[in-house]
Amino acid sequence: MNTAFNQIRWYAVHTSSRHEDVVHSRLEHKEIPVFLPKIETWSRRKDRKKRIQVPLFRGYLFVHVAMDNYIWLHILKTPGVARIVSTQKEPVPIPDGQIDSIRILLENDLMLSPMPYLRVGQRVRIMNGPLSGVEGILISASPEKNKLVVSVDLLQRSVSVELSSIDVEPII
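and the corresponding structure tokens:
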């Protein structure tokens, strides 16, 4: 592993589905510094609505460690951990500034909502509205308008439509 030893960095840990809280507790029990950013949202129950805390990034949490082979295996052996985000050879550290930005956003009680990470040329699916279920290719994005333009194949032709980014998800 080429990661610099004794250098404490942030790393993303991918968890099993809906296991973020369990993994967080287990890593804390192992005395591994861990950060699980959460946001408050409404949950629909059969008879009522309730405010609950959910992970900001579903399926992920962050550890702050000096990564070496021992720590890597110690984390991977934790029940509920799927993997540590890495290249084929070593875990990829996350810049401190990105974690600091997440903390600042959470501390300021802003209304946060997770957004899909979309790239031009990526296949996407429309999730809401009259075009729900339609798939296409993202051909441009305009952050200032918060709109997306999606090319949709119809009879071997393309049409484009402007959509809000919250109505689109990437196709994996």
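(Above: one complete record from the training split.) Residues 96-107 form the longest helix (12 residues).
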